[in-house]
Design goal:
Layout: H1 9-31, H2 38-45, H3 49-55, H4 59-82, H5 89-104, H6 109-115, H7 121-133, H8 136-144, H9 151-169, H10 174-189
Helix pairs in contact: 1-2, 1-4, 2-3, 4-5, 4-7, 5-9, 5-10, 9-10
């Protein structure tokens, strides 16, 4: 029986699971999808390969856990960034700036890697639901500005943000991209 390293079994299991998620994320960033295997993740986490299956039935389940963890961190950081920012255009500006800065810091790379994963349609939809939830601040800003928050409008805003993310990923200065994204959004979404 393995020795537990926490006050309770539940805390030990949570710690072990978190170690596997961290190891998987590191390997995903370093080597891409092909580098993430039950064996490599377990080794990186300092665990036996068989332990992987105590926490994740498959590699896909680990990939989804990595994505959920990354989305939750991104969301928490964004909410912290926007806390206390004046509603309306200042909040939109802060959101755009933070998105481009976080992308430049490599925080969006996980999403790019996971897009290449051959996840089941259900698991992929789960991730897309989480990704769309990250647009809550934009929906709030649009509502504050009196702009309809239809699915189409939010998707268009997300498309402009996505274009900025791709530019930053390809080496454009994040502040230049943020300035351009903000300009396109404010010229294109304000009511007449």
């Amino acid at each position: 029986m393995p020795k537990i390293t926490a006050p309770t079994v539940a805390e030990h299991r949570a710690s072990q699971r978190a170690a596997l998620v961290r190891a998987g994320e590191q390997l995903l960033q370093e080597a891409g999808l092909t580098g993430v295997t039950p064996g490599s993740v377990s080794e990186r986490a300092g665990m036996a390969r068989s332990s992987f299956y105590d926490y994740f039935p498959s590699k896909d389940d680990l990939l989804v856990a990595i994505a959920i963890d990354a989305f939750e961190r991104w969301d928490a950081d964004m909410e912290h960034t926007l806390d206390g920012v004046e509603h309306g255009l200042p909040e939109l500006r802060a959101f755009v700036d933070a998105t481009m800065r976080m992308t430049a810091d490599g925080r969006h790379a996980i999403a790019g890697s996971l897009r290449e994963a051959n996840l089941s349609p259900t698991r992929f939809e789960d991730l897309m639901t989480l990704h769309h939830a990250l647009m809550r601040p934009v929906t709030r800003v649009l509502a504050d500005l009196g702009v309809p928050t239809s699915r189409t409008t939010v998707s268009l805003v997300q498309g402009v943000l996505g274009a900025g993310v791709r530019l930053v990923t390809h080496g454009i200065d994040p502040q230049v991209a943020a300035d351009d994204v903000y300009a396109v959004l404010t010229r294109g979404i304000l009511p007449a």
